[in-house]
Known about the structure:
It holds the Pfam family rhaM. The protein is α+β, with helices and mostly antiparallel strands. It contains five helices and five strands; from the N terminus they run βααββααββα. The chain has one domain (2-117): Alpha-Beta Plaits (2-Layer Sandwich). The protein has helices at 14-23, 31-39, 66-74, 77-87, 113-117, and strands at residues 2-10, 42-50, 53-60, 90-91, 103-104.
Amino acid sequence: xxxxxxxxxxxxxxxxxxxxxxxxxxxxxxxxxxxxxxxxxxxxxxxxxxxxxxxxxxxxxxxxxxxxxxxxxxxxxxxxxxxxxxxxxxxxxxxxxxxxxxxxxxxxxxxxxxxxxxxx
Length: 120
């Protein structure tokens, strides 16, 4: 299983942030969008928020590809409708370019119990 972490900002407006969170409640999710996520090889997806910054963790099948997911999404009218709706709430990170939304993050630190026990 592969793990990816991504970031995106929301428009810094409390009402829009509350509405964005409302759309992401389990009962409000669109089944077609959830299916498209699974069909792309994403096994688990979590989104966290602090202020207007979002952080996503994706755990995927080994053969997952962002290019393949992008192609699947481009051919899915319901996913395109969802993305257009979500863009009302989202804004690109300052270093994003070419219409990027979610930006991959680089892991800069990891600590495991194994690391700790080797140094005691």
